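ARCHIVE CARD
Drawer: 12
Card no.: 0347
Subject: one protein chain, sequence and derived structure
Cross-reference: see card 0346
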Amino acid sequence: MSKLFCIFFLFLNTNIYAYSELYESDLYYLDENEVLLYKILNWWSIEDNKKSTEFCFNNIKVRSNKTLNLAYNKKTKILKIYLKEDFSDLISIFDNKNTNLKNEYINKKYFKNLKAQSIKKINNITLKNISAGEYKRINKIKNNIAFELEGKVAGLLAYNGKISFDKSGDFLRQCPQKPNEKFDIIFKILNMKTKEILVKYLSKNN
């Protein structure tokens, strides 16, 4: 890791706590280290840094930092888990129209008869065939529930300045081509208190 990157990374971490507490923003992690991702985007977009590959192929994880909202329809047995604001607004995953996240795992401890479905948005998740009892249980722990998105940096997009988890796109800063590099995208609904995965979605080798 270059000296420049080390200094830059240290600067980011000195401001993390205050930023997260003040704005209750999504929490961004670069290889497990919490960072202010918007500062990385600004740095990478500068002309002097156009040849930099410091962040290429690094793993980025985003976790929601606000209480999720629940809406349940007892008649249709549909439960919606959502954020009023955009989630992971600095990351692009759905610009490729063919991208969707397929249901990979359902925790039967929470959802015995949940119907597996693919999703094309990550700030509003619809779960079908949820019993009233299951909804009540989720409602009791909703303060512990969080969304989490994970993927690899493929580049910086030209038209919106976001990090892309997809290796295809109109890039301002494109990472070098690596044929064997996998760009899986993972989205989870988590119980942060118990560290359990409630539901998991996946797009492989995107």
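Annotation on reverse: The chain has one domain: 3-203. Residues 3-203 form one domain.
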